Recover the amino acids of this structure.
């Protein structure tokens, strides 16, 4: 997988870093929850559920859970070894009306605020794109919250194209 000139290590998440990855993903999930709780209301035990989900799937070849961290150089980096980015993706089966049978889908992508705008998101996306290619699929998909303009800009710059818009309507009272 490509390693960008960022003094960055991108690796499958080790068991010891699952909690740090969960905390990183929860920063994004809490942001989404603020956008519209009906769509993204989190459970009270979200950390435990997220941890169980990643633990159960991290060695499954149909899933990709990766982290980014800075490597220490010379005198060391202030945040060397700290998980500063992460991505979760999976292989999904398509409905049987299309010429392709599977696609890759990015479920979560997060970069710590202090580490943004340094190419870490792009490096994580590159890793996921190469993983998807190795799986033999023809598409890598994701969803981005309309209000998350920074993420949308990153995805568009990377080459993602908007193909449809998810719409939600409440069907039951809160």
């Amino acid at each position: 997988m490509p390693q960008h000139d960022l003094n960055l290590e991108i690796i499958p998440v080790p068991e010891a870093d699952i909690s740090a990855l969960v905390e990183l993903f929860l920063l994004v999930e809490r942001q989404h929850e603020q956008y519209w709780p009906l769509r993204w209301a989190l459970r009270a035990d979200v950390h435990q559920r997220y941890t169980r989900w990643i633990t159960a799937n991290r060695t499954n070849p149909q899933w990709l859970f990766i982290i980014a961290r800075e490597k220490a150089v010379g005198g060391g980096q202030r945040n060397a070894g700290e998980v500063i980015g992460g991505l979760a993706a999976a292989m999904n089966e398509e409905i049987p009306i299309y010429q392709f049978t599977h696609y890759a889908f990015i479920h979560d992508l997060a970069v710590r605020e202090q580490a943004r705008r340094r190419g870490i998101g792009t490096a994580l996306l590159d890793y996921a794109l190469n993983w998807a290619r190795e799986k033999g699929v023809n598409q890598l998909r994701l969803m981005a919250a309309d209000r998350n303009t920074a993420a949308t800009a990153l995805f568009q710059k990377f080459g993602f194209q908007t193909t449809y818009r998810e719409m939600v309507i409440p069907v039951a009272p809160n």
User: Anything to note?
Assistant: The two ends are 45 Å apart (CA to CA). The mean pLDDT is 90.
